[in-house]
Design brief:
mainly alpha; elongated
């Protein structure tokens, strides 16, 4: 049975909770008005484009692919659920068969000796970046597909689809910059763990006999496993954040489902 999609929740981000709970950022309550903050981000060209969408002189024309399969609101929700589940499985265990997602493997849990602190995180940076690129590409396509369904529906949903496309164009660059900072926060956590690990190794080396094995407490797996898990958790939380606009569109589409269950054709 396909599980229900969670409701879009823009004020209680799973990603922010993860960063707060892991002390990667400070929890700072905001009293700023969302509209005012958004206005501060826009340049005049973006503001003009947004105004044009909100106050169209002529009816909004349907946009999007012309050969998109016809979906009911329930069918659209199931499609989004399937794509989400595929991305989640890709992050946790590898892509499911037939998903056409690229396999992106976590680096081995052992670090090559001698350990070079300046480059030790590089395989994990590539792992994070590859998953981020894949998520960005898949979610962008999914969001466009959902807009295409809305754009052939009611006038209100057509305007919502046009508004979402404008917001995506305006905010995509800022989103990429902000989400890119998550990897740097994880790198900082990695560097702290590695520093402590190397210090323990150095301390024990002075007290141990030659060729004596180090205790498991200072083996890489002991300190690295929680960080590796945190990387996957961060990616799952980021996926939630990236999907929020799409989930909002799906909710709007489902709320205006025809009472006679007729199919909405594209």
């Amino acid at each position: 049975m396909t599980r229900a999609l969670p409701r879009a929740n823009t004020h209680n981000s799973r990603l922010l909770r993860f960063l707060n709970e892991n002390a990667m950022i400070e929890a700072v309550p905001t009293s700023e008005d969302v509209g005012q903050k958004l206005g501060d981000w826009l340049d005049f060209r973006q503001a003009i484009a947004l105004h044009a969408v909100l106050n169209p002189d002529t009816p909004i024309q349907a946009t999007g692919p012309s050969r998109t399969p016809a979906l009911t609101p329930d069918g659209l929700r199931q499609h989004v659920t399937k794509v989400r589940a595929s991305l989640e499985q890709s992050i946790l265990h590898g892509p499911p068969p037939g998903s056409e997602l690229t396999r992106i493997d976590m680096p081995p849990p052992e670090l090559n000796e001698p350990i070079e602190p300046k480059t030790a995180f590089e395989p994990y940076r590539r792992f994070q970046a590859a998953h981020q690129r894949q998520m960005e590409s898949v979610v962008r396509t999914l969001r466009s597909q959902v807009r295409a369904q809305l754009a052939k529906s009611t006038t209100a949903l057509q305007q919502l689809a046009a508004l979402d496309a404008t917001f995506e164009s305006i905010l995509s660059e800022r989103e990429a910059v902000l989400l890119g900072k998550v990897s740097r926060l994880l790198e900082k956590r990695f560097a702290q763990g590695l520093k402590q690990h190397l210090k323990k190794q150095a301390d024990l080396a002075t007290d141990s006999a030659p060729n004596e094995a180090l205790p498991s407490a200072v083996q890489p797996l002991a300190w690295l496993m929680p960080i590796r898990q945190a990387m996957r958790t961060a990616l799952l939380a980021e996926l939630d954040t990236r999907l929020q606009p799409t989930l909002g569109l799906v909710e709007a589409f489902h709320a205006q489902k025809p009472q006679n269950n007729e199919t909405l054709f594209l």
